[in-house]
Amino acid sequence: MNPLLEIFQYDFLRSAFLTGTLLAVIIPCIGLTVVLKRLSMIGETLAHTSLAGVTLGLLLGFNPTVCAALYCVLAAFGIELLRKHWPQYAEMAIALILSLGIGLTGVLSSFVTNMASFQSFLFGSLITVTPFELKLVIVLSIIVFSIFLLLYRELFYIAFDEAAARLAGIPVGAVNFLFTLLTAVTISLAARTVGALIVSSLLVIPAAAAMRLGKSYRFTLIFAVIFSVLTMNIGLFVSYFTETQPGGTIVLLQIALLLLILLLTRLRK
Amino acid sequence: MNRSASGDCCRFERNVFQSNLRFFSRFSAVKKFQTRISAVSQRSVTAAAELSFFSANPQNRFGKFNEFLEILFPKFKIILKVLEIKHLTFSYRRETPILDDVSLTAQTGDFCVLIGSNGTGKSTLLKLFLRQLTPDSGEIRLFGEELASFRVWSRVGYVPQGHSYLNSDFPATVEEILLAHQFPRIGLFGRVRRSHREKVTEVLKLVDMIPFRTARLGTLSGGQLQRILIARALVNDPELLILDEPTTGIDVQNAHALYELLDRINREFRLTILMVTHDLIHAVNYASRIFCLEDGNLAEISPCQLQHELIHRHHHDRKDDACEHVQALEKRCQECVFYQKCVTACHESSFPESSRGMDHSCVVEQHASSLGHSRSGDTE
Predict the structure, then answer these.
(1) Which residues of A touch B123 (CB under 8 A)?
(2) What distance in Å separates the CA atoms of residue A185 and residue A140, rounded to the nearest whole number?
(3) What ipTM goes with this model?
(4) Which of B228, B216, B230, B224 is nearest to B254 (CA)?
């Protein structure tokens, strides 16, 4: 058998490829909007602050994944609220929420007895995705992608000029609310299944590469998705054959490609 | 604005009008007016076709209806109070009011220019119109409706101050932005249709930017970006266009072209324009009404008066053969609400000595600004 196809013999790897590809489609959709709104660090922040939700869930005996998602939603709305107070300093709102999340996690984790479970939330991995998580990712991907396509123009215009979008009659508050909710749920679930490292890199790196090449918003978005799907799948193949950690391999591959694109665009000029 | 209706639409409108005419002609009372109706029927069909009255943006139908009537009855001009401000007071963080009991009315087809020194509240006033700020007291009405209950924002086009606030590196084309701004036509979850793209072509043609339709924003110059912002403000067929210092950072030639464009829009479409500017020379040439904002007060001066004052200022500062001009203009100067603060004016008149001790340059600037001109060497 072709060694490249041999990889699909294993169930866990098939799940890894499917989960990775689905997340590689939806995360750059959210990521491009997030980057254009100057909130690039929101992925890192929400992924880390969801740990506070996990510790709360473990302490109170609730489902940690659900608690993480709820806490992530609260944190995302906290960022939106603080951003309105300091509109020119959006990154400050992110830093505040990140500090709160890490502080809370630090204090609460000292009461957690089952540290193994806690660690699995901290470092999720593509090759350990459970069937339940795969189903969750499939459902979430369909919801996020549908909403993104429906609100494509509105999200684009709000990211470009929120005041003009409001004047044009776009329900900015409602669209922002929905987008914040989707971002929080996607990041919390993706962090649980594939790890905070990949979530953060999938949000920012494809958008950065696409913005360098894209002449229009549509092209930039399509390029970001193609970039992310390609690097995700190539990264998984490489990690299988070189027996390296998939998350790190994918991120390094993305960075290498981004540098190549930056170099090529510089040379073209 | 939307004067290029499709052929099918025109035929449909003509048929509807003619069938209505036949229906009404059955009644004897109406027959008396039939001759009159016949005389204007051709004109009205043309008017309806030109304005695409039935297919126009439904939110702008009232404005279209006015234009329709005006073409039907050319001698009859409908004047509406587009913008009305009564006794408006506003202060930032409860400090000294930046706007103190300000009143203003702009009517259909007015080209209003708002002038004044920096920090006098011109942009604040615009933000109050756009509900980005809330007044302490007073009333603002847009198209006769209270601002709090006004919802049809597509009737208002806004060109913000400077283009630099925009992220010029944003990965978007001119067309994408003009399509996104057509939200009132496309609607939530709506699809872009040919008519929306045609509208983009129409406004780009108006601002002479057709070749830049697919250009990325980052590749445009300041003047071109400003034109795109104006095209964006016009894309929803507004009835009121608000511009906040549109010529900032633009060279003289481009600024002139911009004023020509605004003048054309104002004349051809009877679009009401309200513009904040420091460009007094152009304001004099193009504006039909000039408002001056200073120390929280608003005063209206005629463009003709401002033109005289600009000449007066020129002579006044050069200290040459100015007396003649000054005496001729003294009466008009005294009408200025800031006259009492102007030391230079006091020399030529009989104002109290006490006011002469004030800082000359500062007060002269205020007076100059209040009269709508600056000292020679500034903007002149």
Answers:
(1) none
(2) 9
(3) 0.84
(4) B224
Distance CA A68, CA A53 (A): 4
Q: To 10 degrees, the CA torsion angle through A33, A34, A39, A41? A: -150
| Contact between A156 and B172 using a beta-carbon 8 Å cutoff | yes
Q: Which residue of chain B has the CA closest to A154?
A: B180
For B72-80, which contacts have Cβ atoms below 8 Å and span 24 or more sequence positions? B72/B40, B72/B43, B72/B44, B72/B47, B73/B40, B78/B108, B79/B107, B79/B108, B79/B109, B80/B107, B80/B108, B80/B143, B80/B144
Question: In this complex, which of B173, B188, B236 lies closest to A216 when CB atoms are compared?
Answer: B173
Task: At A35, list the tokens.
Answer: 């980057």
A154 in reach of chain B (CB within 8 A) = yes
- The closest of B196, B194, B199 to B231, measured between CA atoms, is B199
Q: Which token pair is B306?
A: 């401002």
Is residue A214 classed exposed, middle or buried when 0-12, 13-18 and 19+ CB atoms within 10 A define those classes?
Answer: buried
A118 CA: distance to closest CA in chain B (Å): 40
For chain A, the maximum distance between any two Cα atoms, rounded to a whole number of angstroms, is 61
Q: How far is A163 from chain B (nearest CA, A)?
A: 9
For residue B251, the Cα-to-chain-centroid distance in whole angstroms is 21
Min Cα–Cα distance to chain A from B296, Å: 26
Q: Measure CB to CB from residue A169 to each of B158, B173, B184 and give the nearest one.
A: B184
Encoded tokens for B357? 């001790």
Q: Which domains does chain A have, with CATH numbers?
A: 6-261 (1.10.3470.10)
In chain A, which among 34-93 make CB contacts under 8 A with chain B? 36
Q: Whole-structure pTM over 0.90, yes or no?
A: no
Cβ–Cβ < 8 Å for B318, B343? no
Residue B291 near residue B113, CB atoms below 8 Å: yes
Q: Which of A87, A51, A59 is nearest to A192 (CA)?
A: A51
Spatial contact of B291 and B373, defined as CB atoms under 8 Å apart: no
Contact between residue A69 and residue A50 where contact means Cβ atoms under 8 Å apart: yes
- Distance, CA of B234 to CA of B54 (rounded, Å): 20
A151 contact B CB<8A:
yes
Q: How far apart are CA B13 and CA B200, in angstroms?
A: 24
Q: Report strand pairing: B81-90 vs B240-244.
A: unpaired
The residue in chain A having the minimum alpha-carbon distance to the alpha carbon of residue B168 is: A160
Q: Rounded distance, CA B141 to CA B164, Å?
A: 30
Q: Return the bridge partners of B114, or none.
A: B276, B291
CA–CA dist B109, B288 (Å, integer)? 9
pLDDT tens readout for residues B216-257 = 988 888 888 888 998 999 999 898 999 988 887 777 888 888
> What pLDDT score does A233 carry?
92
Would the CB atoms of A216 and B154 count as touching at under 8 Å? no
Q: Note the pLDDT of residue B44.
A: 46
The predicted pLDDT at position A232 comes to: 92
- Residue B341 has what pLDDT? 44
In chain A, residues with a C-beta closer than 8 Å to the C-beta of B132 are 163
- A217 and B172: CB-CB below 8 Å? yes
Picking from A36, A146, A153 by the largest number of B CB atoms within 10 A of its own CB, the best residue to mutate is: A153
DSSP B277-333: -S-HHHHHHH-SEEEEEETTEEEEE-HHHHHHHHHHHHHHHHTSS-HHHHHHHHHHH
- Tell me which residue of A158, A167, A160, A172 sits closest to B126, measured CA to CA: A167
Q: At what angle do helices A196-213 and A217-242 cross, to 10 degrees?
A: 130
